[in-house]
Amino acid sequence: HPITAVRVNGLPCKAANEVVAEDFFFSGLHMAGNTANKQGSAVTAVNVAQISGLNTMGISLVRIDYAPNGLNPPHTHPRSTEILTVLEGCLHVGFVTSNPENRHFTKVLAKGDVFVFPKGLVHYQFNNGNTHAVAIAALSSQNPGVITVANAVFGSEPAISDDVITKAFQVEKNTVDWIQAQFFISIVS
Asked: Where does oxalate bind (predicted)?
């Protein structure tokens, strides 16, 4: 029987004698992400998918670039807490606690400021300034995952039933259809 690789967190571990320096290396965070999109933001991830040496380490990071009025839309990381540091510009950030309180914690951050988004909570960052902004965020998982709220609810394939969405959001079907169409257009284009 062939020997199979040991898997940790779903990923195979390399044999110690096959590990090389490149397994612990990533280059590219000095380059700005392309913010020419509907959200006006770009996330450059550095997790176990980019650095195999992060397997079992429980950490990762991202660079986030924001155009003026750029938004990293409401999202959650199901497997990670996030700590964000503003490197350039100014960001309006926030998160919402879980039910039933749904308390909104928000702050305006300047260069050098740090903010924490607890694991699993919906959070966002918005550049309401007229210059570009840049942040680095560290995450407490090698593969934090990301669920963008609007994409998940209105852009799923196949779509969530109109009956479910109209009742959940207390809106008419034509409103749901219009919102879903915005996501279909952005997926196709």
From this structure: 72, 77, 82
